[in-house]
Amino acid sequence: MLQLEIVTPEKKIYSGPVHDVYLPGSEGEMGVLEMHAALVTSLVPGELRYTVDGKTEALAVGTGFAEVTQERVLVLTDMAAGEAEIDEAATEAAIERAQQQLDQLDHDHDLEEVAMLEAALAKSFAQLKLKGKYKGLQ
Q1: Could you list the residue ranges forming a coiled coil in this record (predicted)?
Q2: Distance between CA atoms of 106 and 103, rounded to whole angstroms?
Q3: What domain range is 69 assigned to?
Q4: Structure confidence at residue 134 (pLDDT)
């Protein structure tokens, strides 16, 4: 069994033994099993999945890093939300606001603001994707 820890700036989201972990890495989805080679990888907004007691849990995560050892996966991310925590209407409204703000910016001169809005959009889309995937599976 692997020990998984998922931490955001606000709180520890999960800490416990898992069978496997699937991470949204910058180079694509990455699966981790016990005795995996040690590595550190960056994360992009997407779906993080792990299996506990035969049940797969999923979270929408933002950007961050994962440190993998043979016995442990430590995930440091700026956002982690389960399907039940995601407010679909609020997320869709946030996407619309961010897209409107992006449309008003000068993409050649407001590079930092453009990057910030694009990151917010990526996190929102990750949440909606997770919400849509698990809608009705209660």
Answers
A1: 81-115
A2: 8
A3: 2-83
A4: 60
For residues 83 and 58, the answer to whether their CB atoms sit within 8 Å is yes
Residues 44, 97 share a domain: no
Domain count, the chain: 2
Task: Report mean pLDDT in 10-residue bins for the chain, 138 residues.
Answer: 97 97 95 95 97 96 96 97 93 92 82 90 92 62
CA atoms of 32 and 68, how far apart (whole Å): 8
Q: What is the CATH number of the domain that holds 45?
A: 2.60.15.10
Say if residue 80 is exposed, middle or buried (CB neighbours under 10 Å; 0-12, 13-18, 19+): buried
Long-range contacts of 15-18 (CB under 8 A, 24+ apart): 16/52, 17/52, 18/50, 18/51, 18/52, 18/73
Q: pTM, whole model, 2 decimals?
A: 0.85
- Phi and psi at 73, nearest 5°, equal -125, 120
